[in-house]
Amino acid sequence: MSARKPAGHMDQHPQNDCDAISYDPRFDEYAIPSGGALQLLSYCAFCGDRLPESKRERWFDQLEALGVKDPWRAELPAEYRSDAWWKAPAE
Ligand SMILES: [Zn+2]
Predict the structure, then answer these.
(1) If you measure from the C-alpha of residue 11 to the centroid of ligand 1, how many angstroms do you get, rounded to a whole number?
(2) Most buried of 13, 70, 81, 85, CB within 10 angstroms?
(3) Comparing C-alpha atoms, which of 63, 65, 64 is closest to residue 79?
């Protein structure tokens, strides 16, 4: 199925179709839900490949540079609500 939400590296692992490992395209982050928190993964639990570096810091930095003080509450530019901001930076 290709109409799913973006799964990044996990696209190649059908064994993750139940989303045991979650992917956040905004930050390019892979994690395993652990209680109410998320345990970030640096390596793929299925094939051992190194996963991308989290882009969370850059996301905050860039939004701050845009004058967004509280990204969790503010109305964000569309590209910052998906992976568009780091895949195809507007400029
Ligand atoms: Zn993998």
Answers:
(1) 9
(2) 85
(3) 63
86 CA distance to ligand 1 centroid (A)? 21
DSSP string, 41-91: -SB-TTT-PBPPPP-HHHHHHHHHHTT-S-TTTS---GGGGSSHHHHS---
**Per-residue tokens: 3:** 């109409």
* Ligand 1 midpoint to CA 16 (Å): 10
Ligand 1 centre distance from Cα of residue 5 (Å): 17
pLDDT tens readout for residues 5-17:
778 999 999 999 8
Strand order in the sheet with 29-34: 22-24, 29-34, 37-40
- Say how many Å lie between the CA of residue 13 and the centre of ligand 1: 7
Chain segment 16-68, per-residue pLDDT in tens: 988 899 999 999 999 998 888 999 999 999 999 999 999 999 999 999 999 99
